Amino acid sequence: MEQMISIVIPVYNERPNIKPLLENTVSVMRNGRFNFEIIIVDDGSTDGTEELLRDIKREYPELKALFLRRNFGQSAALTAGFRYAKGDVIITMDGDLQNDPSDIPLLLKKLDEGYDMVSGWRKNRKDPFFSRKLPSIVANWLIGRLTGVRVHDYGCTLKAFRKEVCKNLTLYGELHRFIPVLISLFGAKIGEVVVKHNERRGGESKYGLNRSYRVILDLILMLFFKRFATRPLQFFGLNGGILFLIGFIIELYLTWIKLWHGKDIGGRPLLLLGVLLIITGIILFGIGLLAELIIRTYYEASEQDIFIVKEILD
């Protein structure tokens, strides 16, 4: 049976690009004789995108439009697309025409080599250097260095997934940039191909330097997810124990000076430092216990597994 391909496209105020995007994508998929659907997720657009999608639905029977009640962000829009996709393979791409639909067969061919996800690499990127390319270069290097997941271009939306690895993804904030990291947590095999990148022809870019701080915060969250998402006590307990031990040694040293040498220790800053470290260590250990209880309650109440089964041999 021929596999079904779902193309998920989140859009926000991209009315000028919708029709040419659909024409190009449908042309590529029909010429390739693929069995496909296109899911455009309208993320609360205010420029008439919703009305346009309703009008052109008759021209494209493969089109499915999801309309979100307000602007939730690209991560939430992608999650919505994943939930409603019926395909065995899911393709994601931007709605600004900078991703080229002609690269979709290339992604699918790479996916057939045994990968669970194939990420696009905009090697020759058509964006301003200082406002877009430079921050992206720094972010890609930093994410790869800290997470150990080596991908050249985390920010490229053009990706291909097997449905079993993305159906369990819940994205929020700026986590769409960290999809390769999240996928790697389940042991997925990740590939990468060089894709074309076009200049923006219509609409306005939604990205800028103001997002860099949010990306950094989500990177910290990713590092915690990668190592301690299911065992937070090991993180908080270890650091709390180290601080407690250092504080205890300091206080033990000051006690020895007081009892054996008769020196006054009441005015020493070291005394306050030792007390502070002991209290901080106890607090961190307590936070670790609470986090452990919250994590266990979350998984038990939501009935969500902390693993994904790749195959069952019956």
Note down, in words, how this protein is organized.
The protein is an alpha/beta fold. It folds into 2 domains: 4-228, Spore Coat Polysaccharide Biosynthesis Protein SpsA, Chain A (Alpha-Beta Complex); 232-302. Helix content is 49%, strand content 12%. It contains 10 helices and 7 strands. The protein has a 7-stranded mixed β-sheet, with helices on both faces. Helix 5 (129-147) runs parallel beside helix 8 (212-228) and helix 9 packs antiparallel against helix 10 (269-302). The radius of gyration is 25 Å and the shape is elongated. The model is unreliable at 306-314 (pLDDT under 50).
SSE diagram, text form:
Layout: E1 4-11, H1 15-31, E2 35-42, H2 49-56, E3 63-67, H3 74-84, E4 89-92, H4 104-111, E5 117-121, H5 129-147, E6 159-162, H6 163-166, H7 179-184, E7 190-194, H8 212-228, H9 232-261, H10 269-302
Parallel strand pairs: 1-2, 1-4, 2-3, 5-7
Antiparallel strand pairs: 4-6, 5-6
Helix pairs in contact: 5-8, 9-10
